[in-house]
Amino acid sequence: xxxxxxxxxxxxxxxxxxxxxxxxxxxxxxxxxxxxxxxxxxxxxxxxxxxxxxxxxxxxxxxxxxxxxxxxxxxxxxxxxxxxxxxxxxxxxxxxxxxxxxxxxxxxxxxxxxxxxxxxxxxxxxxxxxxxxxxxxxxxxxxxxxxxxxxxxxxxxxxxxxxxxxxxxxxxx
Length: 173
Known about the structure:
about 170 residues; four-stranded antiparallel β-sheet
């Protein structure tokens, strides 16, 4: 039998490996398939085609923390860093690249942004804002339901990933 500290280390490594695999699967799926799973591919294509494109230079702020904003940002190319101001320090949270997206929480619930996002390199973003969604919904009133269901599925998957990272070694029973 292995000492407790060795077992604990192996468990921690296994949990981190599982979280990396889940994250890789999410990123790969986002980059190679639809990013909104409950929309038809044609609908998603139309939504992305209608979404305004914005370009950012390295270190240019996409948006600050605690601002009112109702938009989902899809990274066409480049990368951004997500960081959060906490007790006087800027805490890095993650880096996102092409095919990934952010802003979905504020888009859904209308609360201020929970973090600041900054371009790490020349970056091009598609901005899915409420005006774009409203235009699509006027054409097909059922569109919004499928869009929000897709966003809910994305948020649920992100919560699962966070749970694995935070509580993967603890029993829920």
